[in-house]
Amino acid sequence: MSLSDSYFQMCDALPGREGVLNFNLMCDNLPVLLQGVPLTLELVFVSLSLGFCLALGVALMRISNNRALNIVARSYVFYFRGTPLLVQIFLIYYGLAQFDFVKESFFWPFLREAYWCGILALMLNTGAYTAEIIRGGLQSVPFGQIESARAMGMSGLLLYRRIIFPIAFRQALPAYGNEMILMVKGTSLVSTVTLMEVTGIARYIIAKYWTPVEIFLIAGVIYLTINYLVTLIVKKAEYKFTPYLQHQK
Amino acid sequence: MMDFIGLLAFGDTGWGDEMLKGALMTVLVSVSAMAIGLIVSIFGTMSKMSSNKLVRSIGNTYTTIVRGIPELLVIYLLYFGLNNAVMGIAKGVFGYNQYIELPVFFVAAIAVGLISGAYSTEVIRGAFLAVPKGQVEAAKSVGMNRFLIFHRVLVPQVLRYALPGLGNVWQLTLKDTALIMVTGLVEIMRQAHIGAGSTHEPFVFYTAAACLYLILTTVSSQALNSAESWANKGVRRA
């Protein structure tokens, strides 16, 4: 007997409809919902990585002395932090398709796909929040450290690479961990534009069998597990990047 | 450009007044949710700071679960779960067998309220921990009882420490109400969706929605800034 057979046999033994929840059904549908996990993780990973690169640029623009760059970065952050993610997703997915010049442009093959619209919205959203986190980290670097690095003759990229970025990164890590969790939760919104990640699959199953509470509960457990793993990884990273604090534990 | 103005005009021809009504609904839901969240967070903080292990774990479970699963799922779960629960109780206790649907506004406020309550709990707990221990000891040593310490020493400082965090929770709550559209309650997002569907001008409507949210968040951040400087007016600065 295969592993999946024994799994489903175990499910059949669970209580069905009589109680408050149909455990039998929850157990049966867990593997189906798990099929959405790769897409959820992919969305999180791709949008976080692209968003981080974007945020780095925006944060540098935000602390630069150039007024124009500063205003562009400010308005970007203002817009994307001031509106709900759902509005951003809808604007990109439904809104852009309204214009003929978008449909005739080079980007249309991408913007036609819900997947790329989702990635674009998530990336722009996390980019704005992350830019503020990075800015906070960069500004937390004590001025004395930069001064002494300059006194040692470091300048430009070397100063950034050796002194500013490592300190800023360490400062920003806890806040960035929260942002990662927000992003995992944010991916559930792209189910509203037809993407079949965990929430999308949950909605599909519910539309078929009308058992909302059971299915959304399992979906919740899946997200909780992902977020738990994310916090574990962030904690590990924090421990690793603050070697001078390790003896305090 | 003319369409833009025409579409969002007030009166029978445009959608401007409908969108504003949606904004009013968003504000109503947010305020109710924030109020529910604050009440929940009082109990949440009490439970998380209790000396009883079981009570403490209840508070911890609540904040972990609600902050760890997507807001959309919390809303869906309560939207379906609350109706089912009420129908179950009605059937079990009163023998009432008909279909019951709770008012959507009520469900929405409770769902968003529970989400904002979890975040407020963390903020208020942090504010309690920020009050220096020596102050409580000093209050005890001059003979204040527990109630007096709470209301003369802790509460005034906790409110001040918690204000910036609660401001952030308010902004989160305001934006979370956009997800309420899935329940069919006509707030900004739902209204924009309806408008976009019936005029085939999604860009105009979602941009209008985005602007309404921007206005709401900007106005509230200004208000919060002045509230913070009011609360800190007695604090000596370095």
Structural write-up:
By secondary structure, chain A is mostly helical. Chain A is flat. Chain A has one domain (29-241): Orthogonal Bundle (MetI-like fold), CATH 1.10.3720.10. Chain A has helices at residues 3-13, 23-34, 37-63, 67-82, 85-95, 100-104, 108-111, 114-139, 143-151, 156-186, 198-209, 212-241. Chain B has 238 residues and is mostly helical. In chain B, 79% of the residues lie in helices and 0% in strands. Chain B is built from nine helices and no strands. Chain B has helices at residues 2-7, 16-48, 53-68, 71-94, 104-130, 133-141, 146-176, 188-199, 202-231. The mean pLDDT of chain B is 90.
Sheet bearing the most strands of chain B, described? none
CATH topology of chain A: MetI-like fold
Helix content of chain A: over 70%
Helix vs. strand class of chain A:
mainly alpha
The average pLDDT score of chain B comes to 90
List the helices and strands of chain A in order: HHHHHHHHHHHH
**Rg over CA atoms of chain B:** 22 Å
What is the count of DSSP helices of chain B, taking H or I runs of 4+ residues?
Answer: 9
**Separation of termini of chain B?**
53 Å
